[in-house]
Each structure stands twice: as C-alpha cells, then as structure tokens.
Task: structure prediction
Amino acid sequence: MIRVNVTYVICLLSDGIVGIVMIQIIGLEGLPIIREGDDLAELICIGAEGQGVHIEDGDVLVITHVVVSRAEGNVVDLDSVEPSEFAKSLGERLSKDPALVEVVLRQSKSIVRMGDGNIICETMHGFVCANAGVDRSNVPGERNVVLLPVDPDVSARRIRMKIRELTGKDVAVIISDTHGRPLRDGQINVAIGVAGIDPVRNRMGEKDLFGYVLRVKRIAVADELASAAELVIGQADEGIPVAIIRGYAYPRSEEARATKLIRPREKDLFI
Amino acid sequence: MIRVNVTYVICLLSDGIVGIVMIQIIGLEGLPIIREGDDLAELICIGAEGQGVHIEDGDVLVITHVVVSRAEGNVVDLDSVEPSEFAKSLGERLSKDPALVEVVLRQSKSIVRMGDGNIICETMHGFVCANAGVDRSNVPGERNVVLLPVDPDVSARRIRMKIRELTGKDVAVIISDTHGRPLRDGQINVAIGVAGIDPVRNRMGEKDLFGYVLRVKRIAVADELASAAELVIGQADEGIPVAIIRGYAYPRSEEARATKLIRPREKDLFI
Result:
C-alpha cells in the first residue's frame, strides 16, 4: 500500500455541487506488541488518538484475530504439549510438528480433509479452515502458536462495549482471519466474530435500476469488510493489526453472530 | 453507505508528524445507462472527471460485469430463445423459466449441482457459480438477461488500454461479479477479469513481525479489492457500477489473468 505523510486531512463539507460516495480504510499503526492481559480496546483508542484518527460513530473496526487471542492469552507453547500417538503418526505423514498437529486436533470438531501437508478442519465454532486457524505467524516466541479466540463474537462484543465506554462512540467490531476457500485459489480475509453489525445484508425485495425486484441478494458484508481491511492490515511485518473502515452504512444488529455466515454442509449446493 | 455532499476534499500533504496508511473506495456515479456499443472506458473517464475524481496512476478500477456485458452486447432476449426438451424439464422441476434455463445451459461447461431452485454451474471460463452468472437484474427490458463477458480478462485489458490512451494513467482494472460460495452463507464480490494486476499476492518467504518466515500466504487480492468495491457498487438501484480504489500498491502484472484464481476441483482439499 502507499504510505503518505499526512499531517491533516481536511474535508470541507458544504451543501456542494458534487456528491461523492466514499469509504476510507485506515490502517492503525503504532500499537505496542499485544501481550496477555492487555486491554486491546483501550490500546486501539489510544492508538487512534495518537494517529490523529478519532474513532467516530459508525466506524467499522476490523481486528485481526491474532492480537485478540494474544490479549486473551490464547497462545500455546508447543514444548508444553504432549502429542498423542495419532498426532505423532499424522505429523510424520504430513511432515508437520506433532505438537502442532496435537494442538490443531484439540481445536477441531471434525477433520474435513488431510493431504498435501494440510489439515482442513472444522473448528469448534464451525468454521472450515486449514489447521483449525492455529497460526504460527505474528506470535512472539519460536515455539508459540496462537489459537482462534474461544468465542470471537464475545470477544468482539467486549471490545465494542469498551470502546463505547471510553469514547462514547457506537462502532461495529469485526474479528477477522485469513482463510483459504474451496474452488478459488488464494486466501482472503473473512469475519470470524462480529459485534454491532449484521454480517449479512439482505437485499431481497429491493429493486434494481430498472425496477426489477432482486430475487436473491444476501450479501456477506462482514466478509467484504474483512477483505477490504486486509488491504491495509499487515499480514507480514507491517504491524497493522487493526483497520478502521469509515463511511459504510452497515446493517446494525445487537444480536447477530458471525456464525450466521456458516452454511451447514448438508445445505450446501456447491460441494 | 453514507452519502456526503462534498465540494472539495483537500489533503494538505507535508512531511508531517503522523503517517497514515489509507485506502479510499470511491463510487463512480452519474454514468448513463450503458447500452450496446458504448465506449465504457470513455464514459468512465468522463464520469470521473465530472465527479471531480481524476483518474490517477495506480488506481484500481472495479467494474461490475453487467455494464461490461451490456456495452459488449452480451444480452439475450429470453423470447428469442428456443428451450430444449432438457431445459423445459429442468425449468419445470426448478420452477424456472425454461428459456432462462436454456441460456444458463448454453453458458455452462458443466453442471455442479442442481436443487432448491438453483443451478450451480461451471462456466465456460471455469468459474463455479449459480446460473453460470446469467443475471436478470440491472438489465433494461422485462425479458432480457445479461451474460458474463465472453473473456472478462480481454474486456478488462481493453478498458485499461483505452483509459491509458485517454488519460495517460496506468491503472489496474478488475471486472467483478457477486458469487455465492461453498460453506459460507451470503454472496461476495469476486474478480472474474483482471488487467494490469496479479490477482494473487504471494507473500511466501516474507517475514512476520517477529522474524518468522511466512510459510503459506497467497492472498487473493483481486477478490479482496472486488469485495471492497462492492461496499459502494450499487447492487440494487444505486446506479454505481464502478468503484475507484485509491492508495493500494497492488502487485503489477501485464500477463496475469483472473482464471489464475480458479482452483481445479481435483486439487481442492476443501471439498
């Protein structure tokens, strides 16, 4: 991405001539290395202030799950793990660390497929992804791995509430992870936890440009927001674990959960 | 999305104190209804100028396939279609217009699944999606449907070249469609044609925040850009068929095609 040195971004608003529909994706930099027990919401608010980006009502905060799990202490030292016989045999077959395999198995409700050095799992939450989301990157310590948050929706809710408490602002929070997907190559960022937003926008019944009523249009906006955020969130050494998306009127919901995005295999027409 | 009346957006740049990583997604409004033979690239340039958004080097233009196909005359009047016996029997079984089923079959290389009123197809290009991408919405005329462009990469290339010719600017072009996907509910916008951009960013070998070498990180950035654009592109009556994404340093490529994003079923571990 392009890094610009910006002292001020001033928008002169008036009842002007031209209407521009614009959404901004702002990368939050300069957060400290997140450790167990850190108050992530507070650090995000401090970081945003320090960067001159004041959190506003209607902002969508996309947070990479790794920092959420690190703050929640959801990190495992592989040296402390005793792999089962099954994990050992799998590890050998897949050329994978047996302790890592053991952690992946413990995080899985079921195994979808194995092969090619990968274990595609159904996580405890129901997400289908490689290695049950167990991640080796962006974790301090040679032998540490980070797990998915125990309940990413609860984590998102907690962060959202704390941000409201600290700033008085009503935001949506999305916790994201980068997943591979069936049939298409490459990984994309998706939502694994949400708060304050309905992850699916239902456009059924709305009319198109020519008055034709849209038959089926259920847009997974939380996934699209997570993907948009990935464009600035550092996957490698960039150190941007949080993006603020500003200017998108998301469907509000106090109850919706990211697990709404999971389609049960038995209902799936694609596979 | 939030519509703001903006006369000017002034960015005061200096070698300032704070560095902000920011990407903008700008919706292009006010394009005329696109008809067969229209020069879409020219209309986009005129529209951008009229809106005060000057096309810049490094912009990513995401264009919804419907306007590309309309400009290319890739629209079919269902009344002109003679459905086969198979299309008739399928239509009855799926409660679908047999002429529409006939068009869908003609656009398909193979059928993946049928049921629940849907036909999941592998298109001639190799994309797996509902109804082979044949779309009833945002097409003028009660009985008209729009097909996917014959070769969306070629369409993207043509538009990119024309924009360069008209403005002297080097942009990336992504042609998008909204697809359902396996295992996750809701549709997202994905790339079906690209020009000037490698749809996959390969981060393998890059190091994370703690010096750990990323093992597998192939990010489908073209899909993420398409999803980001959908946040402003009008799916219903909003009339925004084009988004300009500004500030994202995409991987450049003169050769890459969107078909690179297709993972052959036999190589798929997820299904």
About this structure: The helical segments of chain A are 40-50, 65-71, 85-94, 98-106, 152-167, 221-230. Residues 1-17 of chain A have pLDDT under 50 and may be disordered. DSSP finds six helices and 13 strands in chain A. The CA atoms of residues 104 and 236 of chain A lie 22 Å apart.
